[in-house]
Amino acid sequence: MIPGANPDATGVEEVLAELALLRRGDAPTHGGRTLAYVYDSGLAELDELAARAHAAAGSANGLDPTAFPSLLRMENDLVGAAIRLLGGEPGAVGTLTSGGTESCLLAVLAAREGRRDVADPSIVVPSTVHAAFRKAGHLFGVRVVGVPVDPTTFRADPAATAAAVDDTTVLVVGSAPSYAHGVIDPIPELAAVAGERGVRMHVDACIGGWVLPYLRRDGARGGPGAFDLSVPGVTSLSVDLHKYAYCAKGVSVLLHADPELRRGHYFASADWPGYTMLNPTLQSTRSGGPLAAAWAVVRHVGDDGYARLARSARTAAERIRDGITAVDGLRVLGDPDATLLAVALDGEPGFDLFTVADELAARGWHVQPQFPHESSPANLHLTITAVNRGHEDALVTAVREAVAAARAAGPVTLDADLRALIGVLDPDTLTARQFADVLAAAGLDTGTGDGADPGRPIRLPDRMAGINTMLAAASPRLRERLLAEFLGLLYRP
Ligand SMILES: *Cc1c(COP(=O)(O)O)cnc(C)c1O
């Protein structure tokens, strides 16, 4: 920049300093204290490597692989690695997407397109399936038939699944593992149900796909069961590289057992005056950045490296589970197979789980509240990663302290006005005025801040227990509406 020539432009150092200041308001992405959203290998060099690879390819466009053959090469390398890791036979193919949701969307789209003869297509999913499949149903006009899971193990029920499959079913889905409870559905049984009916079967291994294969190799210690493309009847599988492959955000892989199964998510259009549009994914322009960063990280860590990282994360998860189970008043839901924990109240211990979350946040640990759903009670979600290994006691100690503080504070009682309001609101006709009333009753400050802390233009209260209690009391549909309204308030320039 020429000084003075461009008076409203910001200098390099200045703009980066501003960014650093903004980032200070975020949940920490490293160190293992943010137990959702982020994945930390604990390997110091990975960030630098990813950043440099990202910079080297961020301007390249995957829209046309003939113009940017480097991206084609790197994508084929990553897909090949995923196929080898996840039981693909020769002939298996895959596609790199922007994330787990896009992979799941494309699996549903391909299944729908593979059955154009079905007028009213549906998919059969365990009710614990990731919300991405609800989104697919919403976007692609596919009915989502949710089948309740076993109320104790939270695993899919193959018999109930078989009963739910009918002539409109174009896809059966199972998770390996589920996000909410971290348990693996009985994939061989579900795939058999699908296979017998000639229906496709997708395994959502978005979160477990880069961990479970390594744990299975340690099978002597009782590793998880078969879940991948080698299971008869499994036709597709999704695995996120930006989760347990510890890659920078924006990369997932969707595998199909053969190219014929994949065809339906490809899109081509020659019906415009521009270039013939050819898209394997929902995106058209595709940055080479996340792809190159993932390619570099996967090659650098290597198979042995991932085996070590998977073992570290699993050991940490087991220790944290044991530690939390020993805390009076808490229990872990189900028998988690991987590296995720759902922590619920044990009986009625006289304290509030959402207060425990607040108390953990006050101590610098961030967990994710999960609301009651069918047989699953309110709980706190913990994604454990390799960086937590060796520091399990710190988290368990924080949980103990948070529970003691929550006990001392007593249970949260929902404000009577708020309870009444929640009881009468109709999610389908909710007005801006009513939403403002809810915010006011919840004591939420939606002011745009005074600029002193640019990272938080809308100030959430330090303690969320009251709001979470209200949201837990709302019907799922009302909760969706309230949170969508809230999001609309956040995204205002
Ligand atoms: C994370 C996740 C997804 C969605 O992935 P995003 O990358 O967040 O879009 C889908 N399924 C499961 C099981 C997941 O854990």
Strand share of the residues? 5-15%
Number of domains: 3
Specify the oligomeric state.
single chain
CATH top level class name of the largest domain: Alpha Beta
- Can you tell me the CATH architecture of the largest domain? 3-Layer(aba) Sandwich
Q: How far do the termini sit from each other?
A: 27 Å
Characterise the protein shown here.
- This is Aminotransferase class V-fold PLP-dependent enzyme.
- One of its GO terms (molecular function) is transaminase activity.
- There is one protein chain.
- With 493 residues, the chain is α/β, with parallel strands linked by helices.
- The chain folds into 3 domains: 52-297, Type I PLP-dependent aspartate aminotransferase-like (Major domain) (Aspartate Aminotransferase, domain 2), CATH 3.40.640; 303-409, Alpha-Beta Complex (Aspartate Aminotransferase, domain 1), CATH 3.90.1150; 416-490, no CATH class.
- The chain is built from 16 helices and 13 strands.
- The strands form 3 sheets. It has a 7-stranded mixed sheet, with helices on both faces.
- Helix 2 runs antiparallel to helix 10 and helix 10 packs across helix 12 (392-409).
- The longest helix is centred in the middle third of the chain and has 38 residues, at 288-325.
- The radius of gyration is 24 Å and the shape is globular.
- Mean pLDDT is 94; it is low at 448-456.
- Bound molecules: pyridoxal-5'-phosphate.
- Pyridoxal-5'-phosphate (PLP) binds at residues 99-101, 104, 130, 132, 175, 179, 204, 206-207, 240, 252.
